[in-house]
Amino acid sequence: MAHGPRRNSHKTVAGLSDWQKNKVVRYIDENIDGCIRVQELGDQVRLSASRFSKGFKVSFGRSPYDYVLSRRVDAAKYLISSTDEPLSQIAQACGLSDQAHLSKVFKRLVGVTPLKWRRLSAGKCTTQHTPASWRRLGSADVHASANA
């Protein structure tokens, strides 16, 4: 016995609003050197981790984890080309566990090793689209506190 037209059981997931996207991107860039959890990102925009993850994927076309990893690599690219810091310190400054982790992720996402990237980008200015929060990562103060 039918009670009218059958409704589609699949719900369309809405993406994040502009203010939510902007706030999350800013939070990620400002905290790139630390642990960033999906729950924390959801809290920033008043969503559960599950709802946030779904909305994030709709808005950015990839998972929060993949996006954060790509931003860590972008920060590493900036530091590699703008400082002479050892790759082990750059890895830590970008929230990656160690130089081996940096090298593995960097090669997978960029296509070359961090050392080759440093050689290829020597003398090129990369600060044009760099978040201001990343500039502090290359400062002597950050590295001095990391060694303390």
Question: In words, what does this structure look like?
Answer:
This protein has helices at 18-30, 38-44, 49-60, 64-82, 87-93, 99-110, 114-120, 132-135, 140-147. The protein folds into 2 domains: 18-63; 67-130, Homeodomain-like (Arc Repressor Mutant, subunit A), CATH 1.10.10. It is 60% helix and 0% strand. Helix 2 crosses helix 3 (49-60), helix 4 (64-82) crosses helix 6 (99-110) and helix 5 (87-93) packs across helix 6 (99-110). The termini are far apart. The chain is mainly α and 148 residues long.
Observed structural traits:
AraC_XylS_family_regulators; 148 residues; Arc Repressor Mutant, subunit A; 0% strand; 2 domains; 60% helix; disordered C terminus; 9 helices; elongated; mainly alpha
* Rg of Cα set: 19 Å
Structural class: mainly alpha
* Quaternary structure type: single chain
- Number of helical regions: 9
Largest sheet: none
* CATH fold call of the largest domain: Arc Repressor Mutant, subunit A
Q: Count all strands and give the number.
A: 0
Q: How much helix is in the residues?
A: 55-70%
Low-pLDDT segments: 140-148
Distance from first to last alpha carbon: 74 Å
Q: CATH homologous superfamily of the largest domain? A: Homeodomain-like
Mean pLDDT: 85
Principal-axis shape equals elongated
Total domain units: 2
Order of helices and strands: HHHHHHHHH
CATH class of the largest domain: Mainly Alpha
What CATH architecture label of the largest domain applies?
Orthogonal Bundle
Strand content: under 5%
